[in-house]
Amino acid sequence: MSDRKRQHWNTIFSTKDDSELGWYESDPSQTLKFLDLVAPAAGATLFLPGAGTSTLVDELLIRGFELVLNDISDKALDRLRARIGSSDRLFWLHHDISRPLPEGVPPVDIWIDRAVLHFLLEEVDIRGYFSNLRALVRPGGHVLLAEFSTNGASSCAGLELHRYSVEELTERMGEEFKLVEQEEYTYINPFGDTRPYVYALYRREDRP
Ligand SMILES: C[S@@+](CC[C@H](N)C(=O)[O-])C[C@H]1O[C@@H](n2cnc3c(N)ncnc32)[C@H](O)[C@@H]1O
Hints:
Strand order of the largest sheet: 3-2-1-4-5-9-8
CATH topology: Rossmann fold
Distance between the termini: 36 Å
Order of helices and strands: HHEHEHEEHEEEHEE
Bound molecules: S-adenosylmethionine
Mean pLDDT: 96
């Protein structure tokens, strides 16, 4: 894991409250709207590659899912754990999602990324991310990517971003994944700034 990146995020999660985070959503309904299109059964396994302290996690637990909660920041995971407590439906992972996953991470039905992929700038890291995604998402499973769009801000959390069009996301996902739904969505952050995102939902083909 890149120690520099881990430190950067740990400093943020050690010094700011949730409401001071530029990506904080008190209401995760934009993501839930896409999840409702998939309508997974309770007991489905969902993977969050950069869970942070997202309120989405609380909603997903209420809906009865098994969750794999990953983050490069152990401080973020500690804070999330302190809020939601422990449960046998939670699998905690402290990992740089651009690097090969450790053994033992379960296959998942849905991968939900809000504002994580766009922090990866090096091509090798972006490829590493998609390779992990392909390794974990089951045939017939879904992927929701919500990233800063091409007309969005060029930095966040003090870091430069790789902004995405739905065309680039679709190209990177590869032919096995079919685009189900997309939306250009403008998020208003806690400071009142507009942050245009692209939301793209994919379904992986069933194995022939
Ligand atoms: C902008 S925040 C979004 C958090 C959460 N998804 C949400 O919507 O509230 C980005 C999150 O990704 C994590 N992150 C950044 N780079 C990462 C990486 N390479 N691997 C795993 N997590 C990463 C950060 O620690 C942070 O929690």
